[in-house]
Design brief:
This protein is mainly alpha-helical. It is built from 27 helices and four strands.
């Protein structure tokens, strides 16, 4: 007995209910979304953007049950990630989950094929493979019903701009990555995973937490203590929480509208050598990013909205107050470098500070290095090589005198050698993932000390077995260089005769 016949034995009178008109379905879903969106930050709730996306999504809605399922899901799950993902993109992902679940799962498994951009470093074979991947699922009726193919393609092209480059000739530059992350868009690889979670993981670092920390910037000591705790907190990706805080705060800088004492407190608190020492290195578009760069970018993002004189005043107060020697010198050196003729020729924007203001900051930074040389802070500073190069430009005689004294002890010599050693990266068309290697700046080291006079000490240190692997690598490289540079000894044979 079929279901209809069974029901006829129970229900004596039946009415045929007509299917709802198409225009009624969006209203069912919008009612739920309106309730869920209460309290959403204004920057994550753009009406124009939502309406444009919804005009595409409504073509995927088929039944009232679909609308209720999507609406109930948004009502129950969005509040737990509110402020962490753009509500327009969150709703779009929920519509895909209900209407084309296999595509939703495909996005979850292959986030890098949907989010992000098609970088200029991607070779033609990789671009071809990416296009084949997307055309394959789009034309697979088991994933996308034939009657939804065009509608799904339109939704995906708006949700993930990367696909506009796959199915068309439209491309996006790397500057959009920071914008998408700032706006909490699904197109950001950092944000997309949030769309698949019922809540923000307890060990992730949310926008709301970033804002809560910054709210303490009226109290320098309280803010510094809070940031110090982030140094000890490890996140699932292996980095410390301070790295993610610096990134999140940079994305939020325009919204914070900090000024006066609160701004100086935040600027000074992040210029801390403990943050720089950790590094937390990651690679973005082939460029190694560490906390020294994250700090610089946050400082620039916080002050660039002010006029030149205000920027100079805030930065001057900051470098006097900031606890970190390496962090301060690194910032001033970069600001100074903006006035280098070669840098000016390539620059797309005016320097952050006037040249005269930069000279005032370099004088303060140089005095701070002199102070660190006297109280022992300079010897312990994490970016010793960068600090010494700047000091050599600003106060060459002071730098030379301190270095000569510093290398009198083996610990000082090894510290200087190690400070001249850094990581390099090399990649090729065949191997796009960069290979990391160590290199020693022997030419730069030779400008600080007379290397041949240290040959015997370096050989003794090498054979001592008491130096680190990095130091041993550097010592070996220096000794190889000195061996190759030795003048050739005269060979045997009949001496020349005659009157000179």
């Amino acid at each position: 007995m079929c279901g209809k016949e069974y029901l006829e034995k129970i229900i004596q009178v039946s009415w045929e209910i007509p299917p709802p008109e198409d225009y009624m379905l969006p209203a069912i879903l919008l009612r739920h979304i309106s309730l869920a969106s209460e309290g959403t930050p204004d920057d994550l709730l753009g009406q124009h953007d939502f309406l444009n996306m919804f005009a595409l999504l409504r073509n995927l809605l088929r039944t009232p049950r679909d609308c209720d399922r999507i609406g109930n899901a948004v009502l129950t799950t969005y509040p737990s990630v509110k402020g962490e993902v753009n509500i327009t993109d969150f709703v779009a992902m929920e519509v895909l989950r209900v209407c084309v679940p296999r595509l939703h799962e495909l996005i979850r498994i292959n986030p890098d094929r949907f989010a992000g951009i098609i970088g200029s470093s991607l070779d033609s074979n990789s671009k071809k493979e990416l296009g084949e991947f997307h055309n394959r699922w789009l034309n697979d009726s088991a994933i996308i019903p034939a009657d939804l193919k065009d509608d799904v393609r339109n939704v995906l092209s708006r949700l993930f701009p990367k696909l506009q480059g796959v199915w068309g000739n439209y491309g996006y530059g790397s500057d959009f990555l920071a914008r998408w992350q700032r706006e909490c868009r699904a197109a950001s690889l950092e944000i997309l995973p949030t769309c698949f979670r019922l809540a923000v993981p307890s060990r992730s670092f949310s926008r709301e937490r970033t804002k809560a920390i910054i709210q303490k910037c009226s109290d320098f000591d309280a803010l510094s203590s809070e940031l110090a705790e982030l140094v000890r907190e490890k996140l699932p990706d292996g980095r410390t929480a301070i790295a993610v805080f610096l990134e999140r705060a940079t994305n939020l800088a325009e919204q914070l509208k900090l000024e006066g004492k609160s701004l100086v407190n935040l600027l000074a608190a992040i210029l801390n050598d403990k943050f720089v020492e950790i590094a937390d290195t990651s690679v973005a578009i082939g460029f190694p990013i560490d906390n020294s760069w994250r700090t610089i970018w946050l400082v620039i993002a916080l002050v660039k909205g002010f006029d030149a004189e205000q920027r100079a005043s805030y930065l001057k107060s900051t470098i006097v107050k900031a606890p970190g020697l390496s962090a301060v010198v690194n910032l001033v050196a970069i600001l100074e470098g903006e006035h280098d003729p070669q840098a000016r020729a390539k620059a797309r924007a005016e320097p952050l500070l006037a040249e005269a203001r930069c000279k005032e900051l370099t004088a303060i930074a140089a005095d701070r290095i002199n102070g660190g040389a006297q109280d022992g802070l300079l010897a312990k500073t994490p970016l010793l090589g960068r600090v010494l190069w700047s000091w050599k430009r600003w106060k060459p005689e002071d730098a030379k005198s301190w270095i000569n004294h510093f290398v009198e002890k083996d610990d000082g010599l090894l510290r200087l050698v190690e400070a001249s050693t850094g990581e390099g990266r090399q990649s090729s068309i065949d191997d796009p993932v960069a290979q990391t290697f160590l290199s020693v700046n022997i030419r730069g080291l030779s400008e600080w000390i007379d290397l041949p006079t240290f040959r015997d000490r370096l050989e003794t240190l090498r054979s001592s077995g008491k130096i680190t692997d990095k130091q041993l690598f550097a010592v070996n490289e220096i000794l190889k260089y000195l061996e190759a540079a030795k003048p050739a000894e005269p060979t045997g044979g009949t001496p020349a005769t005659g009157t000179p």
